[in-house]
Amino acid sequence: MIDTKIQSQNDTVFVSFIYGAPQRENRALFWENLATIAATRETAWLITGDFNDILDNTEKVGGPLRWEGSFLSFRSFVSHNGLWDVQHSGNSLSWRGTRYNHFIQSRLDRALANCNWFEKFPTGRSEYLRFEGSDLF
Fold first, then answer.
1. pLDDT (tens digit, 9 = 90+) per residue, 8-35?
2. 12-29 burial, b if ≥16 CB within 10 A, otherwise e?
3. I need a labelling partner for 87 at 20 to 30 A (CA). Which of 58, 116, 123, 135 fits?
């Protein structure tokens, strides 16, 4: 994670750029550690990047459905820390790949923010750019 504190005159905002835990067994600990940082955020906070997780099965197309319990740690992190999706445009299914002979698309990349962020930047938006190829080499 890259965590930034941006100060302008008498105003401070935080922006965190993350790469979520790619292994499912490490995700709960990742969200717990990030929640520790979230507890220190009393001002506007935007968190963006590759979360390597989804909130529910509506955020994926293709392949078998995931078990509902597999979403719990990410959902809990989002709700307990008062985070909301930033409005976005473009195709949010930003990851594509083949797993178990199924072509799958998922919303792994996103921008979340707290209420203070939305109060400061009520017209803020996130844009998913056109898919050009994998970001993995």
1. 988 999 999 999 999 999 999 999 999 9
2. ebbbbebebbeeeeebee
3. 135
